[in-house]
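We were asked to recover a plausible sequence for a given structure. The inputs and outputs are reproduced exactly as logged, with field labels preserved.

PROBLEM: sequence recovery
POSITIONS: 222
GIVEN STRUCTURE:
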C-alpha cells in the first residue's frame, strides 16, 4: 500500500490492443506489489487499485536450501501420495523436479526428473513408478534449476507376498521371540517387529484371522 506516488514501471494503454499487452517487469523484492491506474498521462496522479483480487506476489530466485522438509519424505512406488514441499513458494511458474540419485554425487539431470507444478499452496500429488533415493530440484522461473541440499526423498518397493521375512515379538522386559511363526498369550501387549518390510507414508501391516476357504492359509483380502 502507498506504492503509487512514484510508480516505476508504466504501461501505455493507448489502444484496445494495448490493454491486453504484456509488460516486462523486473522486480527484485518478493513483497506484494501495488497495481496503480491513471487516466492523466505518465505524470499521474495514480490511484492504487484496492480490488482484493488484484496485485501479484513476486517469487524470489531459488536457493539450494529453500526446501526445509518434504512431508512425507517416503512413499511407495506406483502409489500416488500428496507431498508438501515445506519452504517452497508457489505460482504458475514454479516447478519441482524429483531426480533419481545414483550415488551421493551423481543424479539424473533436473530437466529429466519427475516434474511437478506448484501452482497453489496445497500439497502436490506425487506418483513415481521406480523405487530408489531421489533429490529435489526447484525452479521459480523457466530455465533456472537449483538442486535442494537440505532434503531427500525416498520411494520404497511395492509390497509383495514375500516381503516379511519373519516376526520379532518382545515384551516390555526385553524378552523376545523371533521366528517365522510365534506363539503369544492372549490379551497381552507386545512389541512387534517385521524384518524385511520398508516404511513409508502408506505402508501398513495388518493381522488377519480369516482362513482362505480353499487355500487353507490366512487371507488378507478382507
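RECOVERED SEQUENCE:
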Amino acid at each position: 500500500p502507498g506504492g503509487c506516488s512514484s510508480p516505476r514501471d508504466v504501461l501505455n494503454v493507448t489502444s484496445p490492443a494495448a490493454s491486453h499487452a504484456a509488460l516486462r517487469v523486473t522486480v527484485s523484492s518478493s513483497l506484494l506489489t501495488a497495481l496503480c491506474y491513471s487516466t492523466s498521462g505518465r505524470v499521474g496522479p495514480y490511484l492504487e487499485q484496492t480490488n482484493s483480487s488484484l496485485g501479484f506476489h513476486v517469487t524470489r530466485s531459488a536457493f539450494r536450501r529453500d526446501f526445509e522438509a518434504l512431508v512425507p519424505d517416503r512413499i511407495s512406488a506406483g502409489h500416488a501420495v500428496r507431498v508438501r514441499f515445506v519452504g517452497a513458494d508457489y505460482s504458475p511458474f514454479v516447478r519441482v523436479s524429483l531426480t533419481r540419485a545414483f550415488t551421493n554425487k551423481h543424479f539424473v539431470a533436473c530437466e529429466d526428473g519427475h516434474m511437478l507444478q506448484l501452482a497453489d499452496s496445497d500439497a502436490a500429488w506425487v506418483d513415481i513408478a521406480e523405487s530408489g533415493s531421489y533429490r529435489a530440484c526447484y525452479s521459480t522461473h523457466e530455465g533456472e534449476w537449483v538442486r535442494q541440499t537440505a532434503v531427500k526423498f525416498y520411494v520404497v518397493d511395492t509390497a509383495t507376498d514375500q516381503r516379511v521375512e519373519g516376526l520379532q515379538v518382545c515384551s516390555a522386559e526385553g524378552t523376545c521371540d523371533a521366528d517365522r511363526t510365534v506363539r503369544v498369550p492372549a490379551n497381552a501387549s507386545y512389541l512387534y517387529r517385521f524384518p524385511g518390510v520398508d516404511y513409508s507414508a502408506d505402508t501398513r501391516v495388518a493381522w488377519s484371522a480369516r482362513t482362505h476357504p480353499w487355500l487353507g492359509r490366512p487371507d488378507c483380502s478382507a
